[in-house]
Amino acid sequence: MAKYNKILVTGGAGFIGTNFVRYVVANQPDVHVVVLDKLTYAGNADNLKDLPTERVQLVVGDINDKQLVDQLVQKTQAIVHFAAESHNDKALHDPSIFMQTNLMGTFTLIEAARKYHVRFHHVSTDEVYGDLPLRPTLPKFDKFTTSSQYRPSSPYSATKAGADLLVRAWVRSFDLQATISNTSNNYGPYQHIEKFIPRQITNVLSGIRPKLYGNGQNVRDWIHVWDHVAGIWAILEHGEIGATYLLGANKELNNLTVLQLILQNMGQDRCDFDFVADRPGHDLRYAIDATKAQQELNWQPQYTDFTAGLQQTVRWYQNHQSWWQADKTAVEANYAKHEQ
Ligand code: NAD
Ligand code: TDX
């Protein structure tokens, strides 16, 4: 029996939210899910359309809509909060919507959660901790832990850090029954094609040369989205109120290596890509120490063979061309405005 039978999932039609809802439907037969999603360019109602309607209900709306949030929160036992503007490159050109959704939207939700004493889980990113040196000088600073200092470096990560701090303050001041997870870069099915891995896969599938920022040496710590959503479920069920958990799968790779694995997997020459202008303020390296989550939640990442996960992801985009093709021209046209 699940601890919470009625859950509200914000952003459940986006990449990680979709995988989370599908995980709950597959593994928790007693749980009913209401998804609250604005269906921005990053959300897609089709992601959920094959799921049983008696298990999953999609409400199209904004987390900033206080009245709607109040109505939905009143009827739920727990909220899992994914909804966000999530793309760093977009935030560099248009930060205002990030303030609105990531900060104000989170504020609206935690106010409702406190009013109705509803359990709240806030999904966040390792980017709130800023970045790490490419080659660690002191072992102490080797990876992010739950005691790492908050020092976000981008407009996106600053809004996520702000939202985390709101949740922490609501726990302390109002006894909000909340937990937070900070997770490293996810990959897998249903990820929007603006993001690094799906962008390069769909570039190859569209006859466009992949694009690598700067010198390609920046490091990301990859986790398969299915491991992330299992970790979030474990926190919802077993997490300590007020606690933060870091979820990661120990898979640090630089961007050049990931791109060359994609090219190799897709039968391309490993040099068939272009270096383009670097992202302003580009974080050098992220790395997660997930020991606490592993010890306290009995959670372990399962999909740790990155090459196999990447291959499965390539196949997914090959087999779901109608899912992404309509967006491709606009996504690339948008990138072309800023890349030389
Ligand atoms: P995404 O951009 O794919 O999906 C975001 C979803 O939120 C979309 O369905 C969108 O329609 C919805 N949304 C946006 N604004 C909304 C609003 N105002 N009201 C209601 N719905 C709204 O993002 P994602 O990659 O699935 O990320 C989900 C969460 O996980 C975010 O909070 C993100 O910060 C966090 N996160 C992402 C990663 C990653 O690698 N993608 C890693 C760590 C943490
Ligand atoms: O075309 C590209 N070429 C390239 O070299 C793109 C889109 C990205 N990159 C680089 C930038 C990053 O070093 O690849 C790396 C990954 O880029 P993104 O997919 O944009 O992810 P990142 O900025 O690392 O942030 C992601 O992980 C943390 C998610 O988008 C965030 O939502 C999450 O919080």
Automatic annotation (TrEMBL):
<comment type="similarity">
    <text>Belongs to the NAD(P)-dependent epimerase/dehydratase family. dTDP-glucose dehydratase subfamily.</text>
</comment>
<feature type="domain" description="NAD(P)-binding">
    <location>
        <begin position="8"/>
        <end position="311"/>
    </location>
</feature>
<keyword id="KW-0456">Lyase</keyword>
<dbReference type="Pfam" id="PF16363">
    <property type="entry name" value="GDP_Man_Dehyd"/>
</dbReference>
<keyword id="KW-0520">NAD</keyword>
<dbReference type="InterPro" id="IPR036291">
    <property type="entry name" value="NAD(P)-bd_dom_sf"/>
</dbReference>
<dbReference type="InterPro" id="IPR016040">
    <property type="entry name" value="NAD(P)-bd_dom"/>
</dbReference>
<dbReference type="InterPro" id="IPR005888">
    <property type="entry name" value="dTDP_Gluc_deHydtase"/>
</dbReference>
<protein>
    <recommendedName>
        <fullName>dTDP-glucose 4,6-dehydratase</fullName>
        <ecNumber>4.2.1.46</ecNumber>
    </recommendedName>
</protein>
<dbReference type="GO" id="GO:0008460">
    <property type="term" value="F:dTDP-glucose 4,6-dehydratase activity"/>
</dbReference>
